[in-house]
């Protein structure tokens, strides 16, 4: 287990080998189940091997991390009481009386979860968008998901009829999902990753390649490559949680910026210029984007192919790589 001390005053962890190189703030966000911004604030009151460290501090295997429990509870209470709208409504890519398709920004959670204040479902309701009534109330209209820090094309159903049909299309893999990602290293020009995925046996918020896991297949091709980085286009054949992030870690090419699956510190260490290194240090999230969704409209049966451009920060990083890493 992680906790070696767990009383009312202090939580203490011993850093596992799989967490070697993870940032302190990312480590705290995962173990304390708080937002990244709250974890950054909490880091100021934490000790690593009995020494104060910044949130950007890189942890090592067997480091001992200590965090005041009272401070963590204060942060959670503060976030739960927050009422300020923090997200603008995302760009609309398509809309009719049955569907709305948006370009979800990074940092916006799709539906309610621990410690989240404002979700895509909340924004849709604030806008007055009708949503299907199938399923749980806080997941109204949702037929697929993107991780909080993954941007890109997201479809939401307004009517129950559209929801039923489209949910089945996703379940039966009739919807084509194309992603783009910056990854570490130089993978082969194209390939297939066929490796089963299941929840990590120890780190329960992570996924991992497990022999007895669920079937998972990822096809990819390299669009651009540099010394130690590549931009890949990914065609998901299955839809497991964290599939792209886990699969690319599995083949030793983790997604750039992904502190959970090893892509943050590795990317920074691989950068050959200060400009690229600085940009990577500021990228505290996976450089992963849902670029295209191809589906048959559930009611009109028209084939829809919806694309969303790469976020500006990823585009800027690509320009830096083109300038400095060729």
Q: Could you please describe the fold and organization of this structure?
A:
- The chain has helices at residues 24-32, 36-43, 69-81, 120-127, 160-171, 243-250, 263-270, 274-281, 312-324, and strands at residues 3-6, 10-14, 47-48, 51-52, 64-68, 92-95, 99-104, 151-157, 176-184, 190-194, 197-199, 207-209, 217-225, 229-236, 288-296, 303-307.
- By secondary structure, it is α+β, with helices and mostly antiparallel strands.
- The protein folds into three domains: 3-81, Roll (Structural Genomics Hypothetical 15.5 Kd Protein In mrcA-pckA Intergenic Region, Chain A); 92-172, Pseudouridine synthase; 176-294 and 301-324, Pseudouridine synthase.
- The strands form three sheets. Strands 6, 7, 8, 9, 10, 13, 14, 15 and 16 form a nine-stranded mixed beta sheet that branches. It has a five-stranded antiparallel beta sheet with strand order 1-2-5-3-4. The chain has a two-stranded antiparallel sheet with strand order 11-12.
- The chain is globular, with a radius of gyration of 20 Å.
- The chain starts with a strand and ends with a helix.
Characteristic key phrases:
disordered N terminus; five-stranded antiparallel β-sheet; Pseudouridine synthase; nine-stranded mixed β-sheet; Structural Genomics Hypothetical 15.5 Kd Protein In mrcA-pckA Intergenic Region, Chain A; globular; 3 domains
